[in-house]
Model the fold of this input.
Amino acid sequence: MTNPLPQGATIGILGGGQLGRMLSVAAARLGFKTCIFEPGADCPASHVANAHIQAAYEDEGALRKFAASVDVITFEFENIPTSALDILEALKPVRPNRKALRVSQDRLVEKAFLNDLGLQTAPFAAVDDGVDLTQAMSEIGLPAILKTRRFGYDGKGQARISSPNEAEAALAEMNGAPSLYEGFVDFSREVSVIAARGLAGDVACYDPGENVHEGGILRTTTIPARLTTAQRTDAVLLAAKILNKLDYVGVMGVELFVTDAGLVVNEIAPRVHNSGHWTQNGCAVDQFEQHIRAVAGWPLGGGVRHSNVVMENLIGDDMDRVPDLAKDGTAALHLYGKAEVKPGRKMGHVNKITGPA
Amino acid sequence: MTNPLPQGATIGILGGGQLGRMLSVAAARLGFKTCIFEPGADCPASHVANAHIQAAYEDEGALRKFAASVDVITFEFENIPTSALDILEALKPVRPNRKALRVSQDRLVEKAFLNDLGLQTAPFAAVDDGVDLTQAMSEIGLPAILKTRRFGYDGKGQARISSPNEAEAALAEMNGAPSLYEGFVDFSREVSVIAARGLAGDVACYDPGENVHEGGILRTTTIPARLTTAQRTDAVLLAAKILNKLDYVGVMGVELFVTDAGLVVNEIAPRVHNSGHWTQNGCAVDQFEQHIRAVAGWPLGGGVRHSNVVMENLIGDDMDRVPDLAKDGTAALHLYGKAEVKPGRKMGHVNKITGPA
Done:
C-alpha cells in the first residue's frame, strides 16, 4: 500500500492503553475505523474503537484475524513480541517498521545506534554479570543506573547505584536479565522532540517541550522549552536524522538532555509519546493525528502551534483533583477511562493553555 | 441523580450521527462510557462508542435495555418520538428535559414561546389548509416560506412562496402536515449563540459565530461574528433567557438574525449545533464536552476562546477536497466516517484557525 488510505479503511492498533485510545479517536477524526488488539478486557482504547480483539500476543489465530480485518497496522508500545510481528508483517504493512522496534527494544542497541549516527548519549556499558558490573563502575564511574536492556518503561526495571556496596543488590534486581550500566549526564534540563516522518520521507517536528520527571514518571511538559534558537534547531535536526536513518513512518518521541556540551539523547520511543500530549490543545494537528496521517500515507501536519501549553499528568490519586480542574476554563482534561486508580498509574492528563504561541 | 456523574459512568445518546459521534468522543475524554441508540447500522457514533443498540425508536424492549445500561440519557436530535421519551423518562434522567423538546419540535409552539418571552421572531401564522394560507399571505405578505411545523431540518420540508400562484404547490409539498407560514426577515447577517446551562442553573455561552447558509444548509461559521459589543451582549443575554425559562440542562444552539430593529430569533435547537463545531479548535472545552459536562452535572467550561476559527462544512462532493485540505497546516479536519457520499449530505467539517482570539 503506497496510496493514501481511503475513507472508511481500518487501522489496526496493537495495544489498548491511553495511547491507543487517543490514536483511535484521531483515526476516527480522519474518517478511519479502528481495531484494537489487546489482551486486557475493557481497555481504554476499546471504548472508542470499532472493534477490540481481546487475545494474547502469542495467539496466532487472533493475530491472523486481526490482520485480516485491518488495512494497516501500528502500535502504541514498543515491546511487541517478535513472534507476533513475524506473523503480522507477512500479512499487512506494519508502520513504523521493524528496524525502529529492534533499535528501541534494546537499550544497548539503541545507544550504539545513536552513537553510530554521531549523536551523544550517556556513557554506557553492557552488564551481564558481576564482572561486567565491576568493570563498568570503574570505567564509567558512580553514581549510575543499572537498567534491563529490554522491557523497561516509566522507571521500571531500573536500579540506582550510588556506591559500590549497592552494586550487588542492583544486579539482583535485574533478575539475570541482560542489562545496561548507564552513567549520569550532567544536564540543565530535559526536553523532548515529537517528530514525524511520512510515507514519502517528509519530516515534521513540533517545537520541543520541556519535561519534568518525578520518580521516573513524566510529571509535566511545558511548551515552549527554555532553549536557545540554536538548541531548538539542533534538537529538530537530530530527531530528523534518527527518523531518516530508520526509514521511519509515524511519530517518534526523542528525549534529550540539555548540557553544556550540547544535546545528549536520553532515549527514543517509536510511538506517540506522553511528552507530546500538549499538542492536543496546542496544534491543529496533534501528535495522534500526525501518527495516523503518517501511517495512512496522508500528508503530515506542519507541527505549527497556535497556543502555548503546560501538560500535567494525572497519576494515581491526582484524580481527586479532577473536580477542581474541571472548574478551570483554560484547562483541557483528557481522562483515560481506566477502571481502577493505582499509585503510579497514569489516569489522565490536563493541558493548560497558557497563551498564544 | 444530582451528584456529578463519576468516572466510568455511562452516558446514553439517542441518535448515532455526527453529533452523537462527537458527543461520544467528548464523553470518553472525561472518562465516561457511552451507549448509542440508533436504528441505522454502522452509524458514525458507533465507531467511537462502547456500545450501540441498533433498534427502532418504537422498540420498547430495546429502549428499556438502553435505559438499564446507562446512567443518564441525552440526544443528538430533537425529533425523538414522544412514546420513546415516555418510556425512557420513567427509567433514567433525560437531559435536556421534555419541555425543551416540546417547544423545539413544533415551529409554531417555538415561535409562540419566544414571543411570550419578549423575543422577536419572524412574523408567522399557522397554516392547516388553503384558507389559512390565503389569510396568512394577505396578513404577512410575500415572499414567505411555508414549513411543516414538525420534523424539519437542513431546509427539508420547506417551500418558498414568492407569488400567490406558487401557494398551491407549496401547500401540496407539505403533504397535509400542519404547517407554518413564515414571513421573511430583512437581516444584515445570521449569527448563532451556542449556550449551555448546567444542572445547578449556571449558564455559559461561547462568543456568537457568523453563519452563511447555502440552500438551507450551513456552509460556514466565522468566529468572531461582525457584531457590536451591544449586539454581542444582547445575543448572549437572550440565549440565557431561553435556557433559564426552559430549566434547560445541556447545550443549545440559538440562531439569530441581525436586523436594524435588533436581534430576531430564527430558531432554537435543543442540542449541540453545527454552528458550534468551531469550538473544537477554538476552546479548551468545546461544545460537545460542554454538553456532556452539563448532562453529567459537572461544572461548565467558561466558553473562553483561545483562537479565532472559520468552520466550513464538507458537504457531498466537498470530500474530494480532503487531500488538499490535509496539506493545510492550519486546517483541522473532522470527518464523520459516513460510508456513502451523497449530495447535500454532511460528510465532515474543517476548522481553519485564523489567529489568536
Observations:
- The mean pLDDT of chain A is 95.
- Chain A touches chain B through 49 residues (CB under 8 Å).
- The CA atoms of residues 96 and 248 of chain A lie 6 Å apart.
- The radius of gyration of chain A is 20 Å.
